[in-house]
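Lab notes, practical 5.
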Amino acid sequence: MRHFPIMLLGIVAIAAIITLLMSVSYVPVFTPLAVSIVPYGKVVSGGNTVIVQLDIGKYLGDQLNAVTETMLDGLRGGTIHGKGFSADYNQNINFWEPGTFNGCHVAFGRNEQNEVTDYLQCDDAIFKYTVDFSSGIESKIDGGRLPDIEDETIELLGNAFTIVDTSVNTGTKDISLRLFGGFGSIDLRDTNYGDDAYTDSGAKVNGASVHARVKIKATQSGDKLYIYSIQYLLDAYAAEGGLVQITPLHCVREFLQYPLGMISPSFDICYKGTSAAAVGGGGAGITGNEVRVKPSGNDEYVMVANNLLGNLYNIPLAQNPGMYGNKGRNFVFVEAPNPGAPNINVNDYVLLNSKKDIQGVSNVLMYKGVSAGVANFDDLTGARRSSTVDPATNEGQLMVGEGTYRFVVGAGGSIAMDQTNDGQINGAEAVFVLPGGSRIDFGPGFVVTITTPSRLFSEPMGDENTQFNIVFGGDINIVVPSPQVTVPGYDFKMVSESGDVSKGMTKYGILFSLQKDHSAELRMTVPGAQVRATKGGAQAEVYITLERQNLMKKTEVPAPAAKCGDGIVVPPEYCDPPGSLCADYFKRKGTCSADCSMCEFKAPTVCGNKLLEKGEECESSGDCPANFECKSCKCVALPAPVCGNKLLEKGEQCEADADCPIGYSCSKCNCVYSAPVQVPSPVVQTPNFLARLFTWLASLFGA
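Output from the prediction step:
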């Protein structure tokens, strides 16, 4: 049975559209009629809907383990700019996580509504949504808050969200983030940001629990906290109890006890039911993923590929005279045999893989060495990643994507590293996992194998392994062996198409295209999920959409009336409940008004503007009680006066007599009254006779 990319199903689009046009609905239900129809049968949906075909009994995660920006425009990555930092981010939605949840699958039988029909059943959880910050968003820790990321806006699931509040306890590693957007106020909490466990019931929307699990991965360095990822897993709680079962032409949100847990009003997972043919999602269907192996000059090869999160890597693959890497630097994908035998030198390239599974996340980094007790790595996507080295053990742990990788620093700064996220350094080999679950295995020798796990086939018959060889000589070259048995019972062959181009398709549907030259170039188009012809059996169609409003018929019954205070934002409400934190139209943090009609922004308090505002104790000392003065708009106690220091202080009358009024003197810094001194009048004596005689004689002779 041959597998075709889902784009080829557009051949039957016209017939499917005619069938859809015959459908009639008198209740507000999901309908593919909302997909725009234009002349000549072209279907356009704006790039925000993916359609997946499932057999009865098949899980959504078996066919499509993750959705990224390559499939949904609303999952585009971006850059968040904070106070003193900027960080790129990517987002994806997973529908299965081994050991955590199985997700949704198609079933047939009697459902919870006592109907015999096919339905989409979600056993334990609906989806996992992840936001990955490549270099981490950072903030100083100030009074249990992260002020440097507050008031910042980020686009999530096609909606703008503003971080309006934060809290962190570095002792217990408890962290909470409050965002405003989508359905309103969203609280995310992880009780231990340092572990790898989810916090149950870690999410609230408008103050009410939505039964979702939350994992926030972060590390502390000095007085700063770095957040590397936020993971949100919505548990399956049915509105009427029992199992969440979505009947044909309905969506998940209708059947949830906590529909606001979908986070965004635009996000939903809708079930069309079984059909004999699929309708293309307007170019937004599962279009696959291209891997390109191209020459760099005549002596090097580069492999260009996306990882599971949609990060594009240019991997230095091989170089003359016969080694992996480029420019004399090694590309290391096999671990050291033990921690004491380092095999990664400064400026070597390192392949890391969180798990050898269809959900493994692979990263390629350049090791830059150790400086000031910190090991530095440059992710080839452009982000710098660092880890502190323990001086006692020469060990460190590097957090990248979905993994935490132990390493040991040896002589000359070389390192031995756990490259497979199993905590061991024992010679294991890392692989590069592609979107869709296929993986690239380098070696042994210079044989490269593209492996598609058996579980991705509708009828498993063993893993599919397709190989190409790197050949060294005067020029470096690529050879694709033909024929080769890639899976039991199937011979893969390269067939000449025209000129120097030959093509071949594996049983799974990987298209190989080899253009021969001095150094050949190889392109491999890997399906994003297993896609095939129906082979006579009906298949169910599941729509994963970020444009729910376009896939729903208009309601023909009145919408529920807005009720301010019920925690549900219903137009014309802007927010709910009153008093809750929100962000206004200008993305400024505020509080919800009493009537839920607006987010009231209040300018922050400004000390020194001579206006006594909320949060201030004073603007001048006159606003303070006795023996207090105003400093930085806070009333602070005056220091006790010191008598005799020649400084006239509050509480003192004087330091010297000159400080006192007339008639007072300074005594022990107090002015005291001084009584006037009585001075007797001088006594004038009359001269006697002899004195007068001598005075007369003196005047007579001029004496």
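Observations recorded by the TA: The chain has five domains: 65-241, 289-526, 562-597, 603-638, 649-675. Helices lie at 13-21, 60-63, 689-700.
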